[in-house]
Amino acid sequence: MEKLNILVLEDDKLAQKIMAAQLTGHKLDMAGDLKSALGYLGRDKYDIGFFDLMLGADDDYSGLKAIKAAAEKGIYAVVVSSSDSEDIIDRAYELGARDFYAKGNEESNIADIIRKFVQNRKLDAGTDVFESAFVTEDPELRAAVTEALRYAPTDLPVMILGPSGTGKTSLARIIHDRSGRPGAFVAINCSAYTEDLLEAELFGYKKGAFTGAGEARRGRLLEAHKGTLFLDEIGTMSPNMQMKLLKAIEEKTFHPLGSERPETSDFRIISATLEDPKDLVARGRMRFDLFQRVQGYTLKLKPLSERAGDLFPLIRHFTRGGRRLSFTAEARAMLEEYKWPGNAREVKKFVDLVCCGPEGRIDGVIAGRHLKPRGFSAAGAPEAPVPAAAPRPAGGENDELYALALRDGLQAALDKLAEEMILRNLAENGGKRTKTLAGLKISTRMLYSVLKKNDDGGDDDR
Fold first, then answer.
1. Rounded to an integer, what distance in angstroms lies between the CA atom of residue 232 and that of residue 280?
2. Is residue 390 assigned to a domain?
3. 190 contact partners, CB below 8 Å, separation of at least 6
4. 53: closest CA among 10, 12, 106?
5. pLDDT (tens digit per residue) in 154-180
6. What's the domain count of the chain?
């Protein structure tokens, strides 16, 4: 813990003991009256000052004078007072107070004040995040990211919008690193799981909670205790899963699958989505109450095609500490004209490819060889599609699935297809589950879900 120089102005002896106990480990001066406080301020330099306002039964808020003196010296002035009328709060902030708290919850409030102060000072004095962690020279994006980092030491939820490859996960990790939270950064891509698997992944499960749950597993919510839970593609969650997550966010408690005992986790939420969350709400794909709970501070990351001047700083960043590259004028023009539909992630892949080649001087031929991703033109626009085969005539083997998709949605048809493929493979393997798990590369949970639905345990041969 960083040791700070702190001044406390407090006339009550019991309150002095409480404050001293919460500030153990810091260099602390305790003033019991205004004269002593002004004397300390005149002699010494402090990082933070905690000020009571009424110093005695008949005092007329003389502590306000100490706030003014502290603010003039650049001290972070915090009011901790039993007097919290709107008029007094306004006067304190007008005189230079940075925070105002009512007495009675010092243990929580003081720890939070110290943490935010330390993290914000690191942000102000540390290395430039835009040169080392989140590379951009775009003024508008820099302003948005800087503002987001101001909320890093708080518990405020953050929602990050933007196309794939723009750095949403990287920014979420940066915010966590500057939060001062001692727990882990735990990331999960919600679009990579079915509803049942996502519930098990987030909440965890007890041994025997379902067929195949041979061992208990901690969920991501518990792993993120005292840390940050990053939910990428949060808009892909089912409405039922969103409701369960909302309850866990609001109450900080949840039940692992198969457990009657609740678990507690103090996690901070950062979320991300490719789509406009307001549009997701309007279309019924995101619950409005969940949207309200996770949006907090919202920022949008622009695609690389709208960030003039960021391409070559990104290339330099991705080659830092390794092989450096040189580009001919032709190659530079080609790279700058290209739209980079995969954004920074695509730039990283391009750099990895050319760095593995024999030439360090990249000309137009070499750049063009590695530049165009499959399905995109050199300008970054989708290429004309290859003509498809003639439609399958009515009565084909997929007509039933197609009808199911039209009636119940595409996901229902995909689930049905997966079920049929699993049962077919299991039959071809003589009912041996391990061969089916390995052959289809599916999870145990998915296999047992199909078996349970079809009331078939399969052969238990290993």
1. 15
2. no
3. 198, 231, 232, 233, 234, 236, 237
4. 10
5. 899 999 999 999 999 999 999 998 888
6. 4
d(CA 389, CA 79): 74
Other beta carbons less than 10 A from residue 266's beta carbon: 12
Distances (CA, A) of 92 to 48, 68, 76, 315: 15, 9, 13, 49
Domain CATH number, residue 39:
3.40.50.2300
Q: What is the pTM of this model?
A: 0.66
Rounded Cα–Cα distance for residues 30 and 343 (Å): 55
Q: Domain check: are 215 and 323 in the same one?
A: no
Report the C-alpha gap between 340 and 308 in whole angstroms.
Answer: 12
What tokens appear for 370 in the block?
Answer: 């590695």
Distance (Å, rounded) from C-alpha 204 to C-alpha 186? 14
Name the CA radius of gyration of the chain, rounded.
Answer: 29
Contact 378, 338 (CB under 8 A): yes
Q: What are phi and psi of 217, to 5 degrees?
A: -140, 135
Amino acid 462: pLDDT: 41
pLDDT score of 384: 44
Angle between helices 139-150 and 168-177 (to 10 degrees): 40
Would you state the structure tokens that stand for residue 174, as one six-digit string? 């940066």
Same domain, residue pair 267 and 314: no
Do residues 448 and 421 touch, judged by C-beta distance below 8 A? Answer: no
Total residue length of the chain: 462
What pLDDT is recorded for position 1? 59
**Is residue 362 located within the same domain as residue 442?**
no
pLDDT for 375 equals 44
328 and 251: one domain? no
pLDDT value of position 373: 52
Contact 210, 448 (CB under 8 A): yes
- For residue 383, tell me if it sits in a domain: no
Low-confidence ranges of the chain (pLDDT < 50): 126-127, 374-397, 456-458, 461-462
271 forms beta bridges with 159, 231
Q: Residue 161 belongs to what domain range?
A: 133-300
pLDDT of residue 129: 84
Write the pLDDT tens digit of every residue in 43-75.
Answer: 889 999 999 999 987 888 999 999 999 999 999
| Same-domain status, 221 and 147 | yes
Other C-beta atoms closer than 10 Å to the C-beta of 293 total 17
Q: Which amino acid is at 122?
A: K
- Bridging pattern class, strands 185-189 and 228-232: parallel
